[in-house]
Every structure is written in C-alpha cells, then in structure tokens.
Amino acid sequence: MVSDVAPVPKLQPTENWDIFKLQRKILLIFGLWPADRLVRRWYVKVLIAINLITLTICMVGEFLHGLYAYRDGDLSESIESICPTVSRLSGLLRVVFYLINEEKIDHLLNHISEVMRDKHPRENDVIKRMATLGQQFTFYLFLMMFFAACLYGVTPFFMMAYSWFRGQQPLEKLLPFKIALPFDSQNTAYFVLTTIFLNYASAPTITSQSGIDALFSGVCLYVYGQFRAIQLEVEALSATLDSTAARDSFAETLRINNALRRISKRHQETIDLVAEVRSAFTANILLVYTSTAIIMCIVCVAMLVVEGIYKLTYLPYAFAELTLLFLYSYSGTVVRDSSEAIQTVAYNFPWYRFDRNTRHLIQMMMIRAQYGSNVDVPFFETSMTSFSAIVRTASSYITLMKSFL
C-alpha cells in the first residue's frame, strides 16, 4: 500500500555549516537560519514573532519616553532613551530585510555548500584560515555587543546599591532602559517583570545585528578564499611549465588548455557567487551604511551629556558600531582586491608560448578581473574608503551637535 503522505524534508546536516558555525548559533537564538526555513518548527516561528514584537514594544516605549523627556526640557534623559531605540530599529529592519531575502540567502549558502564538497585539496588551508578569521570576527563583534547589553542591564543595580548604601529612602527603582510604561515601575512586582522583559529584549537586539552582519562577513571571507585559491591554481600551473621538456608540444598545449578552461570556469562561478552575495545582502548593506553614522553620532553625544557610571555603558556600544562598519567595509575590500589580483597572476602566466585558445582564456580572465567583483550597493561602495568617510562624517555630526549642547 502506497502512503499518500508527502515525506517530511530533512534538515541539512550541521557539519555543512562548519565555516559559519558561530554565526548559525547566534542566529538560532533569534530563531533564524535560512537552511531551516522550509522545515522550521511552529515554536521557532513563535520565537521569531515574540522577538520581533519585543523589539517593537521596546522601540515604541523608548521613543515615547524620549519624546516626553524632550518636551519636559530634559535633553540628557531624551538622548539616553533614544540611543538604544535607534539600535533596536536597526535590528528590527535587519531581520525584516533578512526574512524578505531569506530564500536568496538560503540559495547562496547552498551554493557555497556544493562548492565545498567539490573543493580542491589546495583550497583546504585557505578555506580553513578564512573560516577561522570569520569566526574570530563574529566572536569579537558579539562579545562587544553582549558586553554593552550587560552594562545596560547591571548599571541600574549598581546605582541602586549605591543609593541604598547611602541610606536613601524610599529607594528609587531604576530600569535598565528608559521606557514609557502604562504602569508604575516603582511597584515591586511590575519592576521585576519589566526588568526581566527589558533584559530579555537585549537578546534579539544583539543577535539580530551580530548574527546577520557576521554571516555577511563570513560569506565575503569565503569568497576571498575562492579568489585566492584561483590565484594559487594559476601559479601552480605556471610552475609546472619550468620542469616540462616539450613545452610547445600538442600534448602540453592541450594539458594547459584544459587546466585553464577549468580555472576560467571556476573564476566565472566565483564571480556569479559574488553577484548572489550582493543580491542577498543589498538591503542590509544599505541599512548599515546609512544608519551607522547616525547611531555613532547619537552614542557619542550620549557619552558627552550623561553623567557618572552611565558613560561607561556607551563606550562598548560605540566600539561595537565602529566594528560593525569596519567588518562591512573590510569584507567588501578583500573581495574586490582578491578579484583584481587575478589580473596580475593571469598576466604573469606565460600565455605567449601557447596557441590562440590559451591566449583567449587568459585574456578573458584578465578582462573579468579588470572590472573586478564587488558587493557595492547603490550610493555606497563597501570599502575602507567608505569606512573612513563615514567616520569623518560622524565626527562632523558630533562636533556640530556638541556646539548646540
């Protein structure tokens, strides 16, 4: 008897994602991993919805509190409230763009998984080094964001402990974030529940940023490894010519021609992979480059206007945003530079010793490399030049706003 029930699709093995294992763990805290999108359990979908609702509630409450504080003339309170709001809004938009493009990201990761199964032994060291570097970047980014969230969470308890030590009565209860509430936060039960909720809200805030952005950086480093492996292939093929006796023979020409065809095909596939990366992450790249200068400006102004221990909470926050911008810029730079470097390697190959077909293959590789492969988006190029320009712009904003304080 044939069953009418359709087979349940199997989850992809986690060992396929060893090069993105830390990014995967961080994204699964939010409930997101593109390879699981077709087999995502109902409770994971509920977790994603809860995290999105949590971000929205905190964002609205903090914005309203900042607006009320501004109307009351308390600039310091207003900036303290709006500062995390911008970060939550950025995280919320990241997840929305991620979900919109999740099918593209899933296709991209599957493409990478297929390439890894067919990789040449010469790639092993390159891919291993790039994977390690990607994991280190992810760890440092997550650590800084986690440290900033922890400072936000524990600073009010230090302040309350200090007030209690000085004998302040009644003791004012301080929340981790400045937020407008429909109830009295000084009520013990409400205070405990609100504190737990606000501290939990830090989890989707930092995972939505560090996970998605670190995944983009990891993919770019993998692409860099592919371009670097192509360079090694061309150099290794060129090295075999020195020890060949009949360099101009038909057999030798055919061997070189076949090898160059394989390398040229792989070069084109890597260029297509870059196009997939650009298509899948365009919205998030635009978001990062348009919002980071504003966020850094608000954070640095907050460091100037707040007093006491609260200044320390914004220092890791500022470093986290700076690191985030650096990762995007550095990732785009290494992709472009490694792509353009193939032009030099191809030119150094002794193509002039072979037939027209061999010269044509080398010329095609040089033309592709000359135009370069990049993950640029409209209005912005992901490069260290953009990084320095945005940092200078943020510094100008800070100087301008400081003159009004």
From TrEMBL:
Superkingdom of this protein's organism: Eukaryota
Give the record's keywords alphabetically: Membrane, Olfaction, Receptor, Sensory transduction, Transducer, Transmembrane, Transmembrane helix
Question: How does this chain sit within the bilayer?
Answer: Multi-pass membrane protein
A molecular-function term among this protein's GO annotations: olfactory receptor activity
Query: What residue intervals traverse the membrane?
Result: 46-68, 139-165, 286-306, 312-330
Q: Quote a single Gene Ontology cellular component term.
A: plasma membrane
What protein name does the entry list? Uncharacterized protein
